[in-house]
Amino acid sequence: MNLSSRLTFALITVVVIVVSGHVLYSVYFDFRSTRTLAASAVANVRGPRLNTSLTAAQDQTQRLVDSLLRDQRFLSAYDGKNKGEAAASIRAAEDKLFFPGSVQVTDEKGTVFFSTETPNQSGYSLKSESTVIDLALAHDFYKGPTFSEKTGVISISTVKSFSAGGRKGILAVNQPLNSDFLTALAARFGIEDPNVLGVELAVYSEKIKTTTAFSQGIKNLPGPMRFLLDLNGHDASKVVTRSPLGTGIPQLDHLIVPANGFEKEGAWWMSLPLESDRVIIGYVLVCKPVPNEQSKLVEVLLLGGLVGVFGGLVGLFLAAKIAQSVDTPLRFLVKRTQAIANNKQIIPPLENLSGDWLELGELIDTAVLSMRSTTQNLKIQLNKQVEAVKERGLIAEQSTQQVDTLNRQITTQAQKVAELSRHVNQAGRQATVLQQQLDAVLQSSTEGFLILDQYGNILHANPVFLNWTGMSEGEIAGRLCFDLVLKPGETPQSHGMGQAFTQHGGDPMALINQFYPEGVIFHRASEKTVQVLAHLQPLSGDDGSIMGYIMVLRDKSLRSENQLLRQEIVSMLQDNIRGPLTGAELSWQAILANARNTMHPSVGQALAELHLHYSQLVGVVDSLLMMYGGFVPPPAAVKEQINITRVVADCLEEVTPLARDRQLLLDYKTVTGLPPILGNREAIIGILRQVLERMIMVTAAGGRVRVESQVKGNEMRIGVSSSGPALPQSEIAEMFVGFIEGKHTQDTYGSRLAMYLARSNVERLGGLIWAESEAGRGTTTYFTMPIT
After folding, report:
1. Comparing 423 with 117, which gets the higher pLDDT?
2. Neighbour tally for 774: CB within 10 Å
3. Which of 93, 161, 297, 346 has its Cβ near the most Cβ atoms within 10 Å?
4. Phi, then psi, of 768 in degrees rounded to 5
5. Are 681 and 644 in contact (CB under 8 A)?
6. Is residue 582 a contact partner of residue 618, using CB atoms and an 8 Å limit?
7. What are the residue boundaries of the structural domains of the chain, listed by start?
8. Residue closest to 515 by CA, chosen among 217, 747, 218
9. Does domain 640-786 have CATH number 3.30.565.10?
10. Which residues pair with 709 in a beta bridge?
11. In 3-state terms, what secondary structure has residue 350?
């Protein structure tokens, strides 16, 4: 399909879519508007107008009843059984009220005394024709729709029982809903409101399943007349409640025509039920003709077809012109490009082209020239690649020689690895012996030990604690330590109701804040209790974060014996366990330094993991020495040179969120050319961070915390100052002593323990720490570190 055919097809498609859309919209809009207007007119009549007219007819029948029952002439005629006199009084009352209906008088049994419908007949039973007589006798009065099987007409009636002298009777006044009445109503509605002109009425009797009356205008409407005839003999209740358009989907019908009622046989219908004693005896049907959309569809199709044909002709003409303006230069460019591709000597010039076509031809020439240039460059690069391959061959030969040299070096390193493996095995055996000695210490101790995770859940307990509780280690594993170690005065809970690994807030310091230095342990099976003194020792990782805790519980009754045992344990831990462990640190450093350069990576990884276990074991022994000996062991790690400026910057970055929350300013004041200090970087970072956090907590909002560093002799002095308020001298004196039970409040336990640990770490690294405070100048904490 060429360009001309495609343009023609596209234009015809657009014309068909536009015309079809216009036809559908026009027909739908006309259908919707005519049905909506008809439904509005029908609803106007069916609603207020028809109800008002039927109510007026009902009121007129009641007025006639009241007038006759006040007429002594009528009452005397009924009492005297004078039909002529009764007929005269009834006609006089009808003429006075201009009443066009009928009047029936019966005795108390429903036998007709006089009826204007059958003035020459009497004595027949009206009760057998209608249940209205029974309703009037039961309730003394009835008004509403009635149906007469004798006349086959539905009427608006008022029926009332009365008494004349000693004789009882029933008076019924009826306004029949006949064709004349309906025709008059339809005409009056059209005169009162031109919008409802053309609305017709009909009455359907549910008793005999027949249309009993209709306005004269329906005779001239074949569709509505046919609907009324088809309705005879059928149940009207199923018809009058159908969906508006009869699709069976009410939502779809109301979307198309948003109105009540239904369309049938060219008219829009609505119904008004007529009820007698809560039973529907008939319907008043209201309709208005609606136009047939077939003629509208034909009209719109003809008009749309003419417009479509004209548009198609114009489209064909324009498509031909557009195709001609595109095909000619396009064919020229195709032939010219083929000539260039075939390397012909004579190439047609671009003189006959203009505008975008000329630019396209120039771009084609540029692309062809660029492609030829690229091809030439590729040939040159290919030649270079051939030469490069030859050079790589020479390099490969040299690499082979280097591989042979490396193989010899690997053989030498394998021998060194074997030697290091012997050292590793010896270190493993030594670590096993030390672990057995540590287990022996825990087993022989008279104190209870709990190894906790960072949130206080029990991971391990020694036999002493298990003996105190009367439980096995499996029963307490995962329990919160404070479920078993209670504060004095707390009542014990059931040991079986605890929850393993309870949820927490994610703050490891919460356990320290909840810790209490004294406790009571209850035996599970008996009433035995143990009064204990508790000590909580945090276990820190390489980054200074808390990895877990060791809780030591001392029986108060064995305190004196424990003192002697403590000294023995400290001596054994320091001399027999820690001494050999720390003595191997230099050997470890040499092995690990060698492993990075001479060993296979897998061997180096195994050595690193083994050294990690070694470091953890040294940390456990140091923690036990801190608990039993009350001193901080000297570091086992080799000291390193540290740039204090970088350490201060890292610490300030860590505490910046805390200072921002308290609206504080952080800064650092130093001098140039500071020498490095000798120590453990992680330990110094932990000390400075703890001091910074303490100074931030005592500084008022809007203040400043400053870090200063300077050289004093062979020491580096680092000061952290607070802008205020100044701390009292009593607080300065006890800042680094730790938590003293009975003297300090529980809410200061965490901060005092942190400053105590800072002092211990400073002294362990060979420095000093102190604090100074002056009113009006705030508080400053100093600590020193050796330079060499």
Report:
1. 117
2. 10
3. 93
4. -130, 155
5. no
6. yes
7. 430-629, 640-786
8. 747
9. yes
10. 718
11. coil
Q: 784 Cβ partners below 8 Å, 6+ apart?
A: 712, 715, 716, 717, 718, 762, 767, 768, 769
Distance of CA 561 to the CA centre of its chain: 64
The mean per-residue pLDDT over the stretch 422-443 comes to 59
Nearest to 625 by CA among 572, 585, 687, 563: 572
CA pair distance 607, 618, nearest whole angstrom: 16
**What Cα–Cα distance (Å) separates residue 249 from each residue in 246, 260, 332?**
8, 14, 63
- Say how far apart CA 550 and CA 716 lie, in whole Å: 34
Rounded to whole angstroms, the Cα distance separating 142 from 279 reads 14
Nearest residue to 65 (alpha-carbon basis) of 155, 131, 161: 161
Which DSSP category does 506 fall into? S
**DSSP reduced 3-state for 273:** strand
Task: Out of 3.20.20.220, 3.40.50.1820, 3.30.450.20, 3.10.20.580, select the CATH number for domain 430-629.
Answer: 3.30.450.20
The model's pLDDT over 201-235, given as tens digits with 9 standing for 90+, comes to: 999 988 888 998 999 888 888 888 888 888 888 87
φ, ψ of residue 440 to 5 degrees: the values are -65, -40
Helices (H), 527-599: 559-571, 579-583, 585-598
Report residue 671 as tokens: 């001098």
- pLDDT score at 568: 73
**What is the SS3 assignment for 522?**
strand
For 198, the 3-state DSSP assignment is: coil
Is the dihedral angle over the CA atoms 394, 399, 404, 409 positive or is it negative?
Answer: positive
Residue 318 tokens, joined: 């324009």
Q: pLDDT band at 442, cuts 50/70/90? A: low
Q: If you average pLDDT over residues 4-12, what whole number do you get? A: 73
% of the chain exceeding 90 in pLDDT: 11
Task: Give me the mean pLDDT over the 94-115 stretch.
Answer: 85
Dist CA 132 CA 153 (whole Å): 14
How much is the pLDDT for 495?
Answer: 47
Residue 174 burial (C-beta neighbours within 10 Å; 0-12, 13-18, 19+): buried
- Residue 197, pLDDT > 50, answer yes
Candidates 628, 171, 552, 604; CA nearest to 413 is 604
268 contacts: CB under 8 Å, gap ≥ 6: 35, 38, 39, 42, 259, 261, 262, 287, 288, 290
Q: Return d(Cα 215, Cα 205) in angstroms, integer.
A: 15
Residue 451, strand partner residues = 460, 550
C-alpha distances in Å from residue 366, one per residue of 332, 338, 360, 783: 17, 15, 10, 77
pLDDT at 699 over 60: yes
- In the beta sheet, which residues pair with residue 781? 720, 771
pTM: 0.41
* CB-based contact 108:170 (threshold 8 Å): yes
Closest to 7 (Cα-Cα) out of 327, 329, 332: 327
- Distances in Å between the Cα of 678 and the Cα atoms of 533, 632, 637 are 39, 18, 12
